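Reviewer 2 asked us to include a model.

Predict the structure of this chain.
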Amino acid sequence: MQLNPVAAVIMALIAWAAISSLIHMSEGLLWLHWYMY
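Predicted model (structure tokens):
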């Protein structure tokens, strides 16, 4: 299955955005848990 570079870049950007948002969400939840403790 041949993937053109534009689609590969778009998929990488979407994956990076999802991972970074998950990391920021978990960081915020950890900080909130520590703050409430």
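The mean pLDDT is 90. Residues 17 and 23 are 10 Å apart (CA to CA). We have added this to the supplementary material.
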